């Protein structure tokens, strides 16, 4: 049994059956499936990236339920793995056929799924040194991709060419994206979750790239904004404003503060920068400041990061060492086709936060 299951069992009632279901491979169309991604809670507890598995816990009995490997699986290929591999990866030795699961469950009291998820999510908040190292690995490949893009970026490239280059770098390390990459140039840089990737870059454009590699299920989340042909003065002023806010966020993100309190501090700093840029009038009322602040900075500064790019964790919880979060301030001025965001990933330490790189 691995340490994650041991920690979970210590929090569970011993007289209730716990059932945790892994993800299935979703159909794209016809008999073609999307690439499989395991449910993050199931991956956390087992390390198994195989569809159709079910985990049960009853007292100290841990069972993994699976479908048997058939001759057709061997001929056509499947994501199923041997029992020996399951034992090696998950440390679970009691492996049974799923067809017997309903009989096993009959007569046993079951715990509410939401209650179990809450316990798992509380355990997921604190990362081990090995988990942090996996996140560092994902970040290092993301950094390689950004450095490569910066070296080849030029006018008349298409956004989809840049997206393809990011994917190529990730694939060259046998990794995938932690989320669909965003490559947004010119006016598209002001669209937070832009995904069309069809525009051709022009002289004077900014191109915002939000991309992160996933290493063994562990996500990175990074954003860089490049000037296609050098920064114009106004673009540079916005960049410097975002960078100053990011430094304030880095100095504020620390143990003992909640994300709610932290965001309020960062928002005050951002409002000052927006005022200096002429986007908030100096005599604006409180309501006007709030409205304009949300117009030019419509998202939060930080979120938890780990197996999910927007990972589990309540925003009112006090931060403690071992948590991992992003810092990603941005300013978006649609009328000027200026969208600027800088994003990196950070570990909460005993004294503050450390940028993971």
Furnish the topology, listing elements before pairings.
Elements: H1 3-11, E1 17-21, E2 27-29, E3 32-33, H2 40-46, E4 54-58, E5 61-66, H3 71-76, H4 83-90, E6 95-97, H5 101-105, H6 113-124, H7 129-152, H8 159-172, E7 176-177, E8 182-185, E9 206-211, E10 213-215, E11 218-219, E12 222-227, H9 233-252, H10 259-276, H11 286-296, E13 324-327, E14 330-333, E15 338-341, E16 344-348, E17 353-355
Parallel strand pairs: 5-6
Antiparallel strand pairs: 1-4, 2-3, 4-5, 7-10, 8-9, 9-12, 10-11, 13-16, 14-15, 16-17
Helix pairs in contact: 7-8, 9-10
For the CA atoms, what is the radius of gyration? 23 Å
| Sheet with most strands | 4 strands, mixed
CATH topology of the largest domain: Creatine Amidinohydrolase
The secondary-structure class comes to: alpha+beta
SSE order, as H and E? HEEEHEEHHEHHHHEEEEEEHHHEEEEE
Count of strand segments: 17
**How many discrete structural domains?**
2
In what order do the strands lie side by side in the largest sheet?
1-4-5-6
CATH architecture label of the largest domain? Alpha-Beta Complex
Q: Segments where pLDDT lies below 50 for 5+ residues?
A: none
- How much of the sequence lies in strands comes to 15-25%
End-to-end distance, in Å? 32 Å
- Mean of all residue-level pLDDT scores: 95
Superfamily (CATH H level) name of the largest domain: Creatinase/methionine aminopeptidase superfamily
What helical percentage do the residues reach?
A: 25-40%
Tally of DSSP helical segments: 11
Polypeptide structure, described:
With 357 residues, this protein is of the alpha+beta class. It folds into 2 domains: 3-124, Creatine Amidinohydrolase, Chain A, domain 1 (3-Layer(aba) Sandwich); 129-355, Creatinase/methionine aminopeptidase superfamily (Creatine Amidinohydrolase, Alpha-Beta Complex), CATH 3.90.230.10. It is built from 11 helices and 17 strands. The protein has helices at 3-11, 40-46, 71-76, 83-90, 101-105, 113-124, 129-152, 159-172, 233-252, 259-276, 286-296, and strands at 17-21, 27-29, 32-33, 54-58, 61-66, 95-97, 176-177, 182-185, 206-211, 213-215, 218-219, 222-227, 324-327, 330-333, 338-341, 344-348, 353-355. A 4-stranded mixed sheet has the order 1-4-5-6, with no helix packed on it. The chain starts with a helix and ends with a strand. The mean pLDDT is 95.
């Amino acid at each position: 049994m691995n340490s994650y299951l041991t920690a979970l069992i210590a929090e569970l009632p011993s007289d209730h059956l716990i059932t945790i279901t892994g993800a299935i491979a979703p159909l794209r169309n016809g008999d073609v499936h999307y690439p499989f991604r395991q449910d993050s809670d199931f991956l956390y507890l087992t390390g198994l990236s195989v569809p159709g598995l079910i985990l049960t816990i009853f007292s100290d009995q841990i069972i993994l339920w699976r479908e048997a490997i058939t001759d057709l699986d061997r001929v056509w290929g499947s994501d199923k793995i041997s029992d020996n591999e399951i034992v090696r990866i998950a440390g679970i030795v009691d492996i049974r056929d799923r067809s017997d699961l309903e009989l096993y469950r009959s007569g046993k009291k079951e715990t509410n799924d939401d209650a179990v998820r809450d316990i798992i999510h509380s355990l997921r908040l604190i990362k081990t040194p090995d988990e942090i190292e996996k996140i560092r690995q994902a970040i290092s490949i993301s950094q390689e991709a950004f450095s490569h893009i910066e070296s080849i970026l030029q006018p008349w490239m298409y956004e989809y060419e840049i997206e393809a280059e990011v994917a190529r770098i990730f694939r060259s390390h046998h990794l995938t994206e932690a989320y669909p990459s965003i490559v947004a140039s010119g006016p598209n840089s002001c669209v937070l979750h832009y995904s069309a990737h069809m525009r051709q870059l022009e002289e004077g454009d900014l191109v915002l790239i939000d991309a992160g590699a996933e290493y063994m299920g562990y996500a990175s989340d990074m954003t860089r904004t490049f000037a296609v042909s050098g920064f114009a003065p106004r673009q540079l002023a916005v960049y410097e404003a975002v960078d100053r806010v990011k430094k304030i966020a880095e100095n504020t993100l620390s143990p003992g503060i909640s994300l709610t309190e932290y965001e309020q501090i960062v928002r005050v700093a951002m409002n000052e920068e927006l005022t200096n840029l002429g986007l908030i009038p100096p005599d604006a009322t409180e309501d006007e400041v709030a409205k304009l602040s949300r117009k030019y900075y419509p998202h939060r500064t930080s979120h938890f990061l780990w197996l999910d790019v927007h990972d589990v964790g309540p925003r009112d919880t006090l931060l403690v060492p071992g948590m991992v979060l992003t810092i990603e301030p941005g300013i978006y001025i649609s009328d000027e086709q200026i969208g600027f965001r800088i994003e990196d990933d950070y570990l909460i330490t005993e004294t503050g936060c450390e940028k993971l790189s």
